[in-house]
Amino acid sequence: MFEALSGRLSGVFDGLAKRGALSEADVMEAMREVRLAMLDADVALPVVKDFVNKVKERAVGAEVLESISPGQAVAKIVNDALIDALGGAGAVPLNLNAVPPVPILMVGLQGSGKTTTSGKIALRLKTRERKKVLLASLDTQRPAAQLQLAQLAEQAGVPSLPIVAGQTPVEIAHRALDTARREGFDVVILDTAGRLSIDEALMEEVRQVRAVTHPAETLLVVDAMTGQDAVNTAKAFNEAVGVTGVVMTRMDGDARGGAALSMKAITGAPIKLTGSGEKLDALEEFHPERVAGRILGLGDIAGLVEKAADTLDHEEGERLAKKMMAGKFDLDDYASQIRQINKLGSISGIVGMLPGMGKLKEALGDKDLDTSVLKKHLAIISSMTKGERKKPAIIKASRKKRIAAGSGTTVQEVNKLLKQFDMMSDMMKRFNKLGVKGLMRQGMSALMPKGMGGGPPGGGRPFR
Ligand SMILES: Nc1nc2c(ncn2[C@@H]2O[C@H](COP(=O)(O)OP(=O)(O)OP(=O)(O)O)[C@@H](O)[C@H]2O)c(=O)[nH]1
């Protein structure tokens, strides 16, 4: 999701970061591009207008334009505005604050994923919150829907209300609550009937069920792939019956993301959960700040820092950082760094969390930098002599063959490692010359040898 928007916004901020100084006209031009990118991503026009105006207002002041790295400062303003548009910082949890059994009413159009989502929520509450959940289908329009929910309940390992033919939705709702009270359930999920489009009969049915069940949550399920239709549906539902939260399904199939970005502003209802697949565990909490980070190619720095704090050896990290700063980093240090990285788990996972890391990988000519490559690097380094590890330049062709044989790799792989290490050393030398301030001004691209392309958006530094 958001791939296209993310690609275009990263491009805009790359451009800003490379400039160093920024004028008001530069910001205006960038905002024109942001506006087009958002419209192409199918974000509702009033939302785009409001978004761009807010960013412009905050970004053209002297405080931003004359700051040490205006590109980053503007990117931060955009990041904050994206978080706002997506609903504000932090996930909005399901409200289960009521006397049990707590009713959750599921509403939405036919085929939006309502029944599947009911099963997903039941499984989540059961496994994560140890709640005793009862699933009940109120869909009397389509008898097969009641069977479908019963099957999903079985998959989730959660009981479902026995099907009794001929009852109205209100009667089923009463029976569900009575059963839940009698049998000590914590939560009852009531899955209502869908319709092909919004009609008064559907809304009336939902109102009646609501009146007799007083749900703690009325969750509207919408299909992200329907774009602005999902937003219009949500607006209509909210006005007619009142919605406490939105579950957006099929996020896995929607590359544009316009519905998610328009939902809060247009309907006032927060997105609480998202579905990203047909399986019952494909349900996630919606964290606006994480989604904004992904849209801007900033990765999930907060998540990475949390993980690193738990796993890394800080003294070793500091020792390596000092050697790097002093330009004395050698292959032994590189090996130690690989061991630290390995502790963090999968490399692709880490790379996904790092801002602009994709570009650095490209610049290093290693698109498939992964754990197996790093393991090979470790094997190659340990086949070298101490002298070679301190000063790789002394390694001759005949030694490369022996090192390759000793590490079970090829001469090409040894050469590639040496070339990458050279490049890293070169980047460190540039960094030492530039200093932190210089780097902030010029961005990551200043570290790369000529012709190696630009750095990540916002100069590659997390700005939160
Ligand atoms: N890819 C993907 N498919 C989903 C997701 N959520 C639901 N589906 C699929 O969408 C189809 C329709 O889902 P249902 O749960 O039956 O939809 P519904 O809203 O209950 O439909 P009615 O009962 O007819 O009102 C099913 O094939 C689901 O497996 C999702 O997040 N991603």
UniProtKB/TrEMBL annotation:
Its EC number is 3.6.5.4. NCBIfam families: ffh. Composed of three domains: the N-terminal N domain, which is responsible for interactions with the ribosome, the central G domain, which binds GTP, and the C-terminal M domain, which binds the RNA and the signal sequence of the RNC. Keywords: Cytoplasm, GTP-binding, Hydrolase, Nucleotide-binding, Ribonucleoprotein, RNA-binding, Signal recognition particle. Its main location: membrane. Belongs to the GTP-binding SRP family. SRP54 subfamily. The lineage of its organism: Bacteria, Pseudomonadati, Pseudomonadota, Alphaproteobacteria, Acetobacterales. GO terms for biological process: SRP-dependent cotranslational protein targeting to membrane. GTP binds at residues 108-115, 191-195, 249-252. It is a peripheral membrane protein. Residues 270-283 form the SRP54-type proteins GTP-binding domain. PROSITE patterns: SRP54 (PS00300). This is Signal recognition particle protein. GO terms for molecular function: 7S RNA binding; GTP binding; GTPase activity. Part of the signal recognition particle protein translocation system, which is composed of SRP and FtsY. SRP is a ribonucleoprotein composed of Ffh and a 4.5S RNA molecule. It catalyses: GTP + H2O = GDP + phosphate + H(+). It is found in: Cell inner membrane; Cytoplasm. Involved in targeting and insertion of nascent membrane proteins into the cytoplasmic membrane. Binds to the hydrophobic signal sequence of the ribosome-nascent chain (RNC) as it emerges from the ribosomes. The SRP-RNC complex is then targeted to the cytoplasmic membrane where it interacts with the SRP receptor FtsY. Interaction with FtsY leads to the transfer of the RNC complex to the Sec translocase for insertion into the membrane, the hydrolysis of GTP by both Ffh and FtsY, and the dissociation of the SRP-FtsY complex into the individual components. GO terms for cellular component: plasma membrane; signal recognition particle. SUPFAM superfamilies: P-loop containing nucleoside triphosphate hydrolases, Signal peptide-binding domain.
